[in-house]
Sequence to fold (652 residues):
Amino acid sequence: MAASALSPAVVAAIDDLALAARLVVEGTRVGEHRSPLQGFSTEFRQHRPYQQGDDLKYLDWKAYARTDRLYTRQFRETTNLAAMLVVDTSASMAFPAEGVSKFRYASIIAAALAHVLTTHGDTVGLLSSVDDQWSYLPPRGGPLHRRTLINQIDQWTPAGQFDAPRAIERGAELLKRRGVIIVLSDLYEHEEETRRALRRAQRRGHDVVVWHVIAPEERALPVTADRTFVDLESGAERVIDPRTARTAYAAAFSAFLERWARSSQQDGIDYALVSTDEAPDRALRRLLVQRSRRLHADVVDAGVR
Amino acid sequence: MRWLLPMAWVGLVAVAVPILVHLLSRDTAARYFFPSLRFLDRVVVQPARRTRLTDPWLLLVRCAIIVGAVAALARPLWTTAARERTLASWTARAVIVDTSVSMAARRVGTERALDAARARADVLLDSASAAIRIETGQPREAIMGAARWLTWQGGRGELILVTDGQRGTLEAADVAAVPATIGIRIDVIDGVLDPAAALPDPPFPVRVLERSDSVTGEAFPLLTRAQSELVRRIETDPLSRLPIQVVRVVGDTLDVLAMGDAYDLAATLRATQRSLQPPLAVFESDTVRIPAAVMDTWERAAEEAVVARDIARDERSDARWVWALVLVLLAAEAVMRRRLAAVVEAP
Fold:
């Protein structure tokens, strides 16, 4: 059970992103009997009956000696994981203006994740795109690269529009071998194109993880009086009466979340909703445990088949 | 409840200002930066109607502040029984003292009629709640001004003329022009002409012309061409303050209609005559006084009904309590405004 619960506001208030990330990572370890950090490793092996054409070097001769049957050892992934963090740095991530913004929260989670992965010897890359301005760090490992990653994340400021489909496809291309693509975004724009891009990345053999970052203020309109609502990305303005629009908005937003959850499940994409009012260490732990369970389930499923 | 300055209620038109502001504020609704409008596109949003007021409770408080301020400026007065008694006895007086030449020429006992009139006026003024003294040689010209002052004062109003009652001092038309709610009193100072101060008898007969609605006054039939010339000069003299009108020429004689106090006319004629060459014989007229019976018909009492809407200027108003209420409302408005501003706003 997690004893730690770092306040999102406190963590977000720490100027040093590396320190904030380390705090979050440390928070995930407190009170755990079994660290969830192991769960991200994709090193996986299983036996399956030998089939003609299998590489003989993967034959488990010891098993053959014991059972008199031929089994092939399968490796789901090499021990050294390549991950690509695709982070949404669009203007919409700057919401809310007061408190912890989605962008700051995503930055902390991304930095903490980079910390976790590089600590375990994995390689981590970073990619973002705003208004055709690309920001990219190739997947590498080591503490030096970790500092570079965190510095890069720290330099970003939310602005412009995020072309999620292109960023995901580009990230999938830039991963030279099969790896994990982790998308941190509010997923507002190009909803269908983004899904298609995720599916394409999956077909390339990558493991696709989507962490959908939202603010609690987005679930229901937080104002009561008439306001001129301004779209943070497009700048479009519209006078809205929240009293009459609240119910329908909440329904539309819930349907939006539901669509993402359902389609991700159908596509086999690892999807999780992250709210900025959740303690970041607890959120990271939840995401990692969720992922660990999913991988375990995949193993079981594969075993059954 | 009475209002000492009811005209201040005109300020209620200022209530229109916050109402307009709240009606039009839809166009300048506070900007709220939101991640995306896509779900607000999909929902059917009721457009904020122009006829609907924004923040009605805030508007209500703001209107109450204006109404309270206007009410305080109107100087409210809660009428207690004691105050009612004070108000019932409240009287405003405008005392017009006739200072024409005849008043100076008459004697009441050993003092001049003018001094006696002033002493009478003092007594009348002292017993009034609000008073004004007007001393003039032309009482007719002062009457309307005095009536306006009394109307402005509200409450029971009395217009008192202290005069010797010479014909021309007051006319029926002047009395008719005074608002019916204002009482009129004529205090006649009786006295005899001081032989030392009195003017000599005119060397020509005096004749009173027919009166009409538009022209009244004494007529002086002038006997000689020279006297006629004198009158013409006075008539055309811009410095002469006496209105004189030649109405008829009979041979060498002019019939002259003089407005106002005949005694003053005679004095003016005499003063003017002295500057003429060759000098003319002095002529003048004795005064003719307004019959007492006529003056009795002009007098009337102030209408008691007016007392009900009296204004007590000597009372301290209760506006301070209303101002205190306005301060409370201002504080409430500030709190409400801060709460509205506290709604999460844009970066």
